[in-house]
């Protein structure tokens, strides 16, 4: 049977409805410009949710993928391969880490980090040392373990009974953490900047305090850098801008520049928490993903590139503030590199999704972070012209939305 061209209605007919995608279907993209089935163009300020760090159809990433696909696709974890070893070496040499483990997504990376922490505590201390401390409004993934650790009950409440031994505290509240920490604490997991939670940065004092408490109680400090890692904040990893070093770091999203890959990085000391047969993944560290990630990392891990990200952040925020000075729709504009969140005023509370939907009608794609924050995570190499066009279109959409209001 000859296949017809799919339409948006096919999603409703054939797909399990865990998403509610836009009414248009993207079919082609270059850089930060995307085209739908009708040929309409959009400026992409979503970046695949901070994934397409080097834009769409990046020629260097395409070349790496094509060359690797001519050689070796997949072997399983009974064998190693050259691209994964090259990638591990680069990540170790560029960070605090001594060892890496590769998987396929941010959720898998956090799952591995949490399992490592519990096993390390069990092996080196006692079975009672198993408590995990996380924070309200955090997001760590959609597996049962990571969704339980994330601090957003709407994502976990319908899947009870949930894994136990997990507590949630207010973010940036060091006193609450002091009160909750004990020698039974196996790990503290924290995002240096809460992305899904509204682009909320941790304070330096808070992260330093977390580090000290973990040292005091022999707990593993896990930084979830799935969204903030690989150049997003203008540093290779956000911890480097804070001057606070974790014991384990999870990374994914931008690491593959659009090709699925995740990893955890850790030191020799904590790497002993996982041994042969204790954890694994069939696809993790496959040659295709690692070949692409090597090129992505080589491009981004450059002081000139990262400085350009910081310069783009300054300009992006400057334009947003100028727009807001006229429209007064945002009470706060927060940024960490090219991860930017616009907090809606009380007048527009709960309307981030509606604003984002209208923006697509004007040809610009944006994200939300909850009901009250419009979020941007564009490609780190977005061109000046694409940035200006997208911000202009966003301004037009806001003006119409305010008129409708």
From TrEMBL:
One of its GO terms (biological process) is L-arginine biosynthetic process. Its cofactor is pyridoxal 5'-phosphate. Gene3D superfamilies: Aspartate Aminotransferase, domain 1, Type I PLP-dependent aspartate aminotransferase-like (Major domain). It comes from the Bacteria. InterPro entries: Ac/SucOrn_transaminase_bac, AcOrn/SuccOrn_fam, Aminotrans_3, Aminotrans_3_PPA_site, Class-III_PLP-dep_AT, PyrdxlP-dep_Trfase, PyrdxlP-dep_Trfase_major, PyrdxlP-dep_Trfase_small. It is found in: Cytoplasm. Keywords: Amino-acid biosynthesis, Aminotransferase, Arginine biosynthesis, Cytoplasm, Pyridoxal phosphate, Transferase. Its EC number is 2.6.1.11. Pyridoxal 5'-phosphate binds at residues 106-107, 139, 224-227, 282. It catalyses: N(2)-acetyl-L-ornithine + 2-oxoglutarate = N-acetyl-L-glutamate 5-semialdehyde + L-glutamate. The modification N6-(pyridoxal phosphate)lysine is found at residue 253. It is an enzyme of class 2 (transferase). Binds 1 pyridoxal phosphate per subunit. Pathway: Amino-acid biosynthesis; L-arginine biosynthesis; N(2)-acetyl-L-ornithine from L-glutamate: step 4/4. N(2)-acetyl-L-ornithine binds at residues 142, 281. One of its GO terms (molecular function) is pyridoxal phosphate binding. One of its GO terms (cellular component) is cytoplasm. Its main location: cytoplasm. Homodimer. Belongs to the class-III pyridoxal-phosphate-dependent aminotransferase family. ArgD subfamily. May also have succinyldiaminopimelate aminotransferase activity, thus carrying out the corresponding step in lysine biosynthesis. This is Acetylornithine aminotransferase.
């Amino acid at each position: 049977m000859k296949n017809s061209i799919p339409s948006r209605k096919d999603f409703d007919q054939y797909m399990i409805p865990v998403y509610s995608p836009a009414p248009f279907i993207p079919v082609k993209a270059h850089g930060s410009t995307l085209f739908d089935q009708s040929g309409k163009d959009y400026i992409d300020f979503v970046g695949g949710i901070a994934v397409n760090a080097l834009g769409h159809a990046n020629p260097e990433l395409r070349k790496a993928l094509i060359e690797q696909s001519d050689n070796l696709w997949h072997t399983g974890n009974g064998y190693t391969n050259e691209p994964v070893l090259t990638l591990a070496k680069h990540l170790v040499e560029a960070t605090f880490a001594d060892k890496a483990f590769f998987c396929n997504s941010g959720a898998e990376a956090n799952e591995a980090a949490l399992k490592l922490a519990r096993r390390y505590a069990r092996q080196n201390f006692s079975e009672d040392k198993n408590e995990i401390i996380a924070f309200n409004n955090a997001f760590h993934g959609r597996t049962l373990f990571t969704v339980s650790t994330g601090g957003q009950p709407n994502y976990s409440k319908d899947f009870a009974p949930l894994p136990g031994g997990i507590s949630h505290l207010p973010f940036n509240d060091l006193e609450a953490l002091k009160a909750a920490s004990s020698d039974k604490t196996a790990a503290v997991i924290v995002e240096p900047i809460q992305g899904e939670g509204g682009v909320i940065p941790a304070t330096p004092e808070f992260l330093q305090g977390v580090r000290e408490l973990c040292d005091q109680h022999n707990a593993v400090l896990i930084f979830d850098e799935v969204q903030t890692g690989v150049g997003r904040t203008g540093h290779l990893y956000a911890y480097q801008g804070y001057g606070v070093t974790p014991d384990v770091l999870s990374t994914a999203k931008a690491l593959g520049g659009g090709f699925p890959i995740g990893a955890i990085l850790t030191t020799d000391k904590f790497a002993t928490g996982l041994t042969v047969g204790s954890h694994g993944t069939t696809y993790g560290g496959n040659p295709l993903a690692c070949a692409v990630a090597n090129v992505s990392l080589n491009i981004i891990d450059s002081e000139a590139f990262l400085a350009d990200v910081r310069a783009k952040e300054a300009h992006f925020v400057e334009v947003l503030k100028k727009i807001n000075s006229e429209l007064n729709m945002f009470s706060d504009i927060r940024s960490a590199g090219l991860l930017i969140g616009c907090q809606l005023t009380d007048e527009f509370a709960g309307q981030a999704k509606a604003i984002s939907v209208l923006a697509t009608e004007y040809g610009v794609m944006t994200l939300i972070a909850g009901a009250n924050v419009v979020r941007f995570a564009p490609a780190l190499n977005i061109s000046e012209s694409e940035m200006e066009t997208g911000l202009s279109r966003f301004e037009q959409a806001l003006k119409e939305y305010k008129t409708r209001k």
